[in-house]
Structures are given as structure tokens and as C-alpha cells.
UniProtKB/TrEMBL annotation:
InterPro entries: GIY-YIG_endonuc, GIY-YIG_endonuc_sf, UPF0213_domain. It comes from the Bacteria. This is GIY-YIG nuclease family protein. SUPFAM superfamilies: GIY-YIG endonuclease (SSF82771). Residues 3-82 form the GIY-YIG domain. Belongs to the UPF0213 family.
């Protein structure tokens, strides 16, 4: 991957809950979400078993990535759904693409 930072959207198995985050290591972050969901359940993603990757964007700077994360978090669910569908029409879990 050519980018240093990523904004990503993960969901649970039934695709009912979305979590938006930012990271500099998407593989490690997905592993952390999975571990938390199976063990401590301390984070939002862990409590709702959100570790299935649906969407991601790459950025060269952390400032850009954080700005985009904040923008997406303000969106209504319908707009987030449209963004995911434009990137991943079948809402397939993309974890294998980044690992």
C-alpha cells in the first residue's frame, strides 16, 4: 500500500453497526478490533463486534486522515451507506485485501 494513513469503516457480521476509525497500520488495527471483540470488549468496535472491513481510504498525512474521519462521523447512516456501496457495491468483507 502506498499510503501512510487510512480512514476505514468496519461493521459487525450482520452489517447493522458501523465504526469509523483512522490508523497508520490497517492490518494491525483490524486485529486489535477482532481481539477486543473476542476478549475485553472495552471499545465501541469491540462491544458491537465491528471488525469486518467494508471501506477504506488512504492518505499521505495524518491531518488529512483525521479531517476525513471527522467528516464521515458527522454523516447520517444513509450517506455512509452510499459511500460504502460506491466503493464496495456488494458490501463484501475486505479484510483479506489488506492482510
Amino acid at each position: 500500500m502506498l499510503f501512510n494513513y487510512f480512514v476505514y469503516i468496519v461493521t459487525n457480521e450482520n452489517k447493522t453497526t458501523l465504526y469509523i476509525g483512522v490508523t497508520n497500520d490497517i492490518q494491525r488495527r483490524l486485529s486489535q478490533h477482532y481481539f477486543d471483540s473476542q476478549n475485553t470488549k472495552k471499545s465501541f468496535a469491540g462491544k458491537y463486534n465491528c471488525y469486518y472491513l467494508l471501506y477504506y481510504e488512504g492518505f499521505e498525512s495524518i491531518e488529512e486522515a483525521i479531517q476525513r474521519e471527522k467528516e464521515l462521523k458527522k454523516w447520517r447512516r444513509e450517506k455512509k451507506d452510499k459511500l460504502i456501496t460506491s466503493f464496495n457495491p456488494d458490501w463484501e468483507f475486505l479484510n483479506d485485501q489488506v492482510i
